[in-house]
Each structure stands twice: as C-alpha cells, then as structure tokens.
Amino acid sequence: MKNLLYAALCPLMLCGLIFSGWAGAATSYRVRPGDTLGQIAARAGLSVQQVQAANPKLRGKTAVQAGWLLTLPARPGAATQYRVRPGDNLSLIAKRYSVSLAQLLRANPGYAGGKPVQVGAVVKVPSRRVSGTSTRTPAATVRTASTSNRAGGWLWPLNGYQTISSGYGERTLEGTEEMHYGVDIVAPLGTPVRAARSGRVLESRPDFDRGWGWTVVIEHPDGWITRYAHLSANLISKGELVNRGQAIGRVGNTGRSTGPHLHFGTYLRWNPRDPLGLY
Q: Is this prediction's pTM over 0.85?
C-alpha cells in the first residue's frame, strides 16, 4: 500500500516502480508504451549506461519494449545499508549501488575471506567515491591476442587449446541473431578448465534455464568477473577461494551447446568485455 501511495503521489517520476529491499535498493520498472531508455534512466536519476549494466538484455542496445520489466540500480550514495535477499551475492549488491566489489568488501571485512552472504543479513554500502581517488579500478590493458602464461596476468583457461569456434560479438545461432558475450574455445570432453585469475566462486551449479549448462562464475578483487560454461563437471564449490591456474571444471557439452567446448566470458562489474582483449 505504501508503494502504491508513493507512486500515486509521483506519477511523472516514479510511475511503475516496484520497491524492494530497504530504502535506496534497486527497483523494478515495467516499460510503458512510448517510453525510451533515456527517459527511464532520467526519471530514476541514472545514466543510460547504468541501466544497461543492470539489465543483460539491454547490453549493446538502446531500444526497449512495452511490458519489459527492467532493474533500476540504486543511485550512488542513496543508501548506507542493505538487507540481503534470496539470490544476492556481493558482486550483485555492489553493481546495484554502483560501487566496486573491493569497496564493498572494505566496508564489510567479515566477508573478505570468502564467507558467503546469508539471506536477511545487513550489508553496509559505502558511498560511491568521486573520481580522482586512489581506489579507482584501472582499465584493462589491451594486448595482442595470445595465450601466453604471463605471471600475475590473465591465464588462458584451456592449456594447449586455442581454437575459437565463436568469437565475441553478434552471431546467428540456430537461426536466431544474438549477442555473444564471450568466446567459445573448442576442446575435447573432460579437458581441465583453469581459473584465469584468483578469486572467489560466485556460482558453481547447473544453469540450464539460461542455457549455460554446468557453469562456474568467479569474482576477482578488482571488479572483474569470469564465467566458464557448458562444463561436464564442476570441481569447486560456491564461496570457495580459488587460485589462478587451479582446475575448476572440465570441458563439456551441457546446456545450449552444439559440441564440446568452453564458453569463456569476462565482465568488468558485470559489463561484458571481449576476453581476447585481455591477452
């Protein structure tokens, strides 16, 4: 009732918003006829890029359709605490509040060692730092594509296999045009898959609803996230800390897959990046 009253009092600014969590948490918005992405972002006090980052189906797109339910991340500095909901993890919470994972971990040192967040727990959310601070995440260093093992850098996830059957970008699969946010690396079934960098396991589960099959997702300390999908076996568990080069799974053909391969995706604060630009 409170949410309906609030929306009724603010029809021009917040009509259609459904509030969840505590004040300042991410909200949901049902797209109405005539809406544009720019208008939706402006009403919420956000940039178009922030809305795109919070909604995977908008990445690389600006067109919206009436009836879509969009996630609108909280405005920077809008909240100081957040109650964890089902399905949350630290990376998702950081994304909602436009802060880095490192900032969130500094504000909640109890989670720094890999402790998973529990539903109902209260997480402190720091205000977003202004530009010029020393904690800004540096941009990725773009290098010529190679799979060399550079100490401390990005490790190629499949030792000895470099053939890419589908690169990053637009493609047509089974007659449907789509955006491919990663690269597909061909390798025999059972080939060990290595962690490209050290980090903490966000997901290690079967994800057939989204076509990933058996998948592993790892968050890294500087805002980077990696996905390893279509596995035949997962060798690590959610919440576990893994080292660069550690075996985390085995190549498979599960989910929406047309043959044995590894889907390898890289994201910076959940914004997709071409993995080959990191090697």
A: no
